[in-house]
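Consortium newsletter contribution from the modelling node. Members have asked for a concrete example of what our holo predictions look like. Here is one, prepared for the manganese (II) ion complex that several groups have been discussing at recent meetings.
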Amino acid sequence: MIRLHDILDTISAYNPEADLDVIKKAYVFSAKMHEGQTRQSGEPYLVHPMEVAGILARMKLDVPSIATALLHDTVEDTVTTLEEVERLFGPEIKNLVDGVTKLSRIQFTSVEEKQAENFRKMLMAMAQDIRVILIKLADRLHNMRTLEHLPEKRQVPIAQETLDIYAPIANRLGIQEMKVELEDLALKYLKPDVWRHIDEQVKKRASQREKHISEVKNSVERTLKEHHVVGEIYGRLKHYQSIHKKMVAQNIPFDEVHDIVAFRIVVDNVQQCYEALGVIHALWRPVPGRFRDYIAMPKANNYQSLHTTVIGPHGDRVEFQIRTRQMHETAEHGIAAHWKYKEGRLMEDKDEMKFKWLRRLLEWQSEISDSTEFLETVKLDLFAEDVYIFTPKGQLKELPRGSTPLDFAYSIHTDLGHSTVGAKINGKIVPLRYQLHSGDTVEILTQKEKHPHKDWLQFVVTSRAKAKIRSFLRQEEHDKSRAIGHEVLEKACGHHGLNINRVLKSREMEEFAKNASYEGADAILSAIGYGKISALQIVGLFVPHDQLVPEEAAREKARESVIGKIVRRLTRAKGLVKVSGYSDMLVNFGKCCNPVPGDSIVGFVTRGRGVSVHVSDCPKVVGMDPTRRVDVEWDQSSDATHIAKIRVVCADRPGLLANITEAITAEGVNISAASIHTMEDQTAVNNFDLEIKNITQLRDVIKALERLKGIISVHRVREG
Ligand code: MN
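And here is the predicted structure:
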């Protein structure tokens, strides 16, 4: 059991000026309040706050944090009040205790909505004082360490919550040490069989492993010395969770996980990191593709190190991490390493800058009002790894893995994101859904009048891009529905001799809005636009029911079905063409040349209408901006149909039209539109819109028509 002196000694070692009296006072108070209480393990309750304080002291946190750790359960579990804490320990500690207490009351249930709301509260707490989260993490860590004393049915949900929420947060805050321990403990309770199996295997091979570790250690130490690099080398067993992940990812048994030991070399400065790397690579052959330079390109959580894997002394893979002492501190303690003993002060600007992630979260949470949406967006950022890309000016940017040029654009500026029409990667045009790779140079092509498209939400990955696109679309949708609502209501008013402006400002309207819980006339108009309220309901406020013009409703329906048709036609075009290999991009076909499947085609990125597809010899292609050109091909797997226009000139003879349509449908082709003009010279010109699958089918139709008696000519029509 940890003793008060251990805690005090730890603090004095890193902060000789610390006011230890506060810690002593908190200890005495906590001991008094928790007196007589025991934990499930049978130990006195005080052990828990003491251990939590010990964890934070080892993380080198400030005095108020450690005092709060000692007091953290007093308000929740004893008769202590917050006022008492404030009177005895001052406002800072009181606020910290209050934050931790509130956080403890949050239950992360499986109900998504509730979980989302709770998660948001947690982040808000983090916003006010990050120390609250650090204390909460230490609290959770100790509870996980002692989870065996709880009944089984409580163990699993706590372990799950730890894996889902707390470990990712520790990771994002860069507290590696805590993250891996939380994950390992969670694994123990969530997959006890797996954990036990790994544990047995690890123990069985302990002596063999020790031999391997000391062998590698000795070689490295000796060689480092020869090259005058001063460094310490540690060999350590990998965490169970990461061994488990390897077994699952590569579908291999424990025996085949070769690199269960990882080595770490800690040196004095950055130059020595690279020198040590050179020494290792000279000693053993590096495995290609396994070298990572997180010193030049730190991770989003500030992690820095060189990683490499080599073929070790017995032909097996050996992993090395090389870092400076300061990098090591940051890797183990993350945000806490920057916190340290800056008594009573918030993070310095410089450090705050490093945790941009945190600030961005807080920014978004004020923008997103729907908590489920918030959780969804935030989860992405918590779990994603990162890619590193360059701006055209050579600036380095980090983005989550899977990010697209749009994510990049939104990370620079909202307006840049909104007006994106295309992107160049390393000088080459790519589709917007292209996934960025580390090292890419990304250039964004824009058009002022361009707007975000709903499809974008399908492939952007950052919370910021999602939030910005959603908010734009919501606003746009609202404006649109308001305009439609206004139009519909204006017509309905006209039919009943009413003035829409007077209707909108009327007392009746105001009352209607109040009763139906709409905030004002705009909300009503938008509801009409969405079809939630009928315009007749509003008109009915002023006109007796038997005088309402009934066909108004029918007219609204008719409008709807026209829109429905247009929408169906557009979706039909989707999936026909692959753009740079992707099949669900928004495409439209040039009216000038009407390409059909089988035609040789080219595509151009347009302003806001997706990719425009033309026949390669279309005259319009010549005038197009070649930088907007993208690769397009017909999607062979698609069974979508496409409209082709044909013109059939024939003798104006009764019954011939019937023969023509029969011949077309006999080829399995639908006619979606037709027009017939009779000429003075006894001929008829028939225009047909045909729904065809590919060019072969169109040729078959044309051939069949040409065989008919009385046909003068059959042509495919290309307008323009
Ligand atoms: Mn606790």
